[in-house]
């Protein structure tokens, strides 16, 4: 668990809010990141229900990709409660050698999965 969740959240915000039509709002007591019409693409959880984790949660293409990511790096990825059965993936954000480019890339990919074509053309990667 991160000893300074606010600085970690600031980095997640920077990555998530850099795309067109994105906004942040509390969702079940934690920051969530959305595009128009309330489509979620990322969440930030810190010690959610006392789990001792600081994570960001993003969409994947489905359970197959989720499982592949977990198998490839189980210390970094896991299936989060509630959202995991729908294919979302959690990334642990408390590692000493955390690769923030990797985190930002997964957030961007998640945004791309929910953004309509006109937003992708306006400001995707």
Count structural domains: 1
CATH domain class name = Alpha Beta
Order of secondary-structure elements: HEEEEHEEHH
Helical stretch tally: 4
Question: How does the helix and strand content classify structurally?
Answer: alpha+beta
Q: Helicity, in percent?
A: 25-40%
Beta-strand percentage range: 15-25%
At CATH level 3, the topology is Aspartate Aminotransferase, domain 1
State the shape: globular
Distance between the amino and carboxyl termini: 30 Å
Strand order of the largest sheet: 1-2-3-4-6-5
Any overview of this molecule?
- The protein has 125 residues and is an alpha+beta fold.
- The chain has a single domain, classed as Aspartate Aminotransferase, domain 1 (Alpha-Beta Complex).
- The protein is built from four helices and six strands; from the N terminus they run H-E-E-E-E-H-E-E-H-H.
- It has helices at 5-16, 63-72, 100-114, 117-123; strands at 23-27, 30-35, 39-46, 54-58, 77-78, 89-92.
- The chain has a six-stranded antiparallel β-sheet.
- Helix 1 (5-16) crosses helix 3.
- Keywords: DNA-binding.
Short characterization:
This protein has helices at 5-16, 63-72, 100-114, 117-123; strands at residues 23-27, 30-35, 39-46, 54-58, 77-78, 89-92.
């Amino acid at each position: 668990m991160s000893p300074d969740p606010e600085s970690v959240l600031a980095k997640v915000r920077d990555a998530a809010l850099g795309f067109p039509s994105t906004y942040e709002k509390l969702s079940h007591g934690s920051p969530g990141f959305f595009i128009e019409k309330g489509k979620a693409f990322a969440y930030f959880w810190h010690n959610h229900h006392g789990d001792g984790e600081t994570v960001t949660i993003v969409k994947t293409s489905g359970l197959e990709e989720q499982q592949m990511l977990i198998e490839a790096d189980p210390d970094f990825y896991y299936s989060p409660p509630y959202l995991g059965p729908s294919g979302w993936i959690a990334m642990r954000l408390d590692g000493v050698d955390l690769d923030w480019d990797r985190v930002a890339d997964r957030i961007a990919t998640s945004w791309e999965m929910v953004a309509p074509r006109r937003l992708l053309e306006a400001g995707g990667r």
